[in-house]
Design goal:
The chain has 420 residues and is mostly helical. The protein contains 19 helices and two strands. 72% of the residues lie in helices and 1% in strands.
Length: 420
């Protein structure tokens, strides 16, 4: 006869505070920098401190595992890229800002080892709450779009986004990630409500098309493709992968023909390409501005191939080049994380970045076989092709949070009973 394991003292309140910190981070990414900061500060408070012993004993034990943890070292390498460039720095305000923003890459995994290991049902409960929060938010966004359709349609044709909380690109990225989270709940029949989770995943995917953020759409389709591919490899069943691919292609075609916001965005893109083709090249157009920023960053790297201009000097260098080449006072950092890394830290930084990416993707065999982790990682790394994701506090927080959350719980079985 099996007896349930003895309860662990302090676990319930520590789990509750951990989930509260997670909720603050997720909701903060959508709505509030203040909530995001509270959640990030809450992680070390819960992980490191203990009301009776001062320092959490589980955190001390967890620290011993860090030297052999590829996830920790992969995130640490991303922080090391900025640290090793200190000797090149002359723009110290910008450099110190980078150090502060990217400190989450080091602080979060160190604090994380002291957090209670969540049971699968607890992790799924947090994911369910996240999906519901995003679904309600998207419903409000869609209702606002319908009510103000004419004004928003005009704005879309002028390159403006559908109104969403805070940043439209990051919101679209969160919708893509949450769609995958909802799909995983359905696949694993979480709480025996798989049809509900599948319906919510479909709703979020449809909303992604209404938002008409092209990078978000590409990443959503890419994330779903990776999820389906991993499932097919694990189950050795390719018919569902083929059916899914055909279905995604059909959805994409129907969406372009029927969703007004997508049509307006496509009309704007054709207009901008037409102007560029006939020599009316304006660096203020959204797409061309992004491409120009990448070209400038690439040129900076070509001029400083081995060590770059220094990560702390990248903004000053781009400003100088924009003023010199385009007579624009303020430049843009490259809208590509790899190009930003190469321009700031040269080939050395590029090697460290690729090593970090390899560790996060291939560091654990169990992660390579986890469709949820791999698909979300694909979305996060894919976002770096069109944005400098790791150059903003929200981008760093989102990247670090989802990598740690999904990597630390990917091997849990349902109804697992695990210790702190």
């Amino acid at each position: 006869m099996k007896f349930p394991p003895a309860p662990i003292p302090g676990r319930p309140w520590r789990v509750a505070l951990t989930l509260l910190a997670f909720a603050c981070i997720y909701v903060g990414l959508i709505f509030s920098p203040v909530l995001l900061s509270i959640g990030l500060v809450g992680l070390p408070v819960v992980g490191v401190l203990d009301p009776e012993k001062g320092i959490n004993p589980s955190w001390i034990k967890g620290l011993k595992k860090l030297p052999v943890d590829p996830i920790f070292w992969s995130l640490a390498l991303l922080y090391l890229i900025i640290v090793i460039g200190f000797w090149q720095t002359y723009d110290w305000d910008y450099y110190l800002g980078r150090l502060r923003i990217k400190s989450v890459l080091m602080a979060a995994p160190i604090a994380w080892v002291g957090l209670p290991q969540l049971r699968r049902i607890e992790r799924d409960g947090f994911i369910v709450a996240s999906v519901l929060v995003m679904a309600v938010t998207c419903l409000v966004v869609v209702i606002n779009y319908i009510i103000n359709w004419e004004a928003i349609d005009v704005a879309l044709r002028q390159g403006q986004p559908v109104p969403v909380p805070r940043n439209h690109i990051r919101f679209s990225l969160l919708v893509a990630i949450t769609t995958i989270l909802a799909l995983d709940l359905a696949v694993n029949r979480a709480f025996k409500r798989h049809k509900l989770w599948l319906a919510l995943a479909a709703f979020l995917f449809i909303v992604q098309h209404v938002l008409a953020v092209r990078s978000g759409l590409v990443l959503a389709y890419g994330g779903l493709a990776v999820y389906g591919l991993i499932i097919a490899i694990i189950r050795q069943s390719w018919k569902w992968l083929l059916a899914g691919a055909v279905g995604l292609i059909a959805i994409a075609a129907i969406s372009v023909m029927t969703i007004p916001s997508l049509q307006a965005r496509w009309a704007y893109l054709k207009w901008e390409l037409h102007l560029i083709e006939y020599g009316h090249d304006n660096k203020n157009y959204s797409d061309n501005a992004r491409l120009t920023s990448i070209r400038v960053g690439w040129q900076i790297w070509k001029d400083h191939p081995w060590l770059g201009v220094g990560p702390g000097n990248l903004l000053a260098e781009t400003d100088a080049r924009y003023q010199r080449e385009f007579d624009i006072e303020k430049g843009l950092r490259p809208h590509n994380q790899i190009v930003s890394t190469l321009a700031g830290s040269g080939l050395l930084g590029g090697i460290l970045f690729c090593t970090s990416a390899g560790g996060l993707i291939f560091g654990y065999r169990r992660l390579r076989r986890d469709p949820l982790y791999m698909s979300v990682a694909a979305i996060l790394f894919g976002s770096m092709m069109v944005e400098n994701t790791l150059e903003t506090s929200a981008g760093v927080a989102m990247f670090t949070f989802f990598i740690l959350l999904l990597s630390q719980t990917s091997d849990l079985k349902r109804n697992d009973t695990v210790s702190m």
